[in-house]
Amino acid sequence: VIEEIKKSSSQDIKEISKRELWLIGVILYWKNGNIGDLKKGVHFSSSDPSMIKLFLRWLKEIGNIKDEEIKFDVFIKKHKKNNESEIISYWSGVTKFPKKYFPRIYRQSINKQKNKKSTFLRVKVAGSSMLARQIAGWIEGIKRLIILTKVSI
User: Fold this and answer.
1) Phi/psi of residue 22, each to 5°?
2) Which of 23, 46, 85, 86 has the most CB atoms around its CB within 10 Å?
3) How far apart are CA 52 and CA 74, in angstroms?
C-alpha cells in the first residue's frame, strides 16, 4: 500500500518550471544552513545523491554557474575503512564530473560530523560571494512574506 501511494503521488509531478526550480533551490540552500559567512561563497553539503544532483542543476540553470567554477570536497568518517578511490568514483558518477574535480578528501571524527552517513559531498562554487549574497536576500524575502502572510490551517 505504501509503495502504491508513493507511486501514485509521484505521478502528480509532471515537470518543474524554472520558477519552481529557483524556489526549490533557495529553500534547499536555506535548509542546508549555509548563509552564515557570505564571503565563503556558495557551498552545499549532502550525502543524498538526489539532493546533490538537484543543487547542481539549480546552480547551472538558475545561478548560470559553469562546470569549471564547481569543485567538490568529500568527507569520510575517520573510523570507516573506506576505499577513497571508490568513493571518488561513486561521487564522480553521481555528479557526472571528472575525478579531477574532487581534489580533497577529509576524514572527520563522528562527533564533528553533522551527517550520519559514512560519506558526504560538499559542492563549492569559486568566486561566488555575490551569488551567496543574492541567495541570502531571496531567503530574507521569503521570510518577510511568511511573516506578512496569515496562514490559516
Assistant:
1) -55, -50
2) 46
3) 12
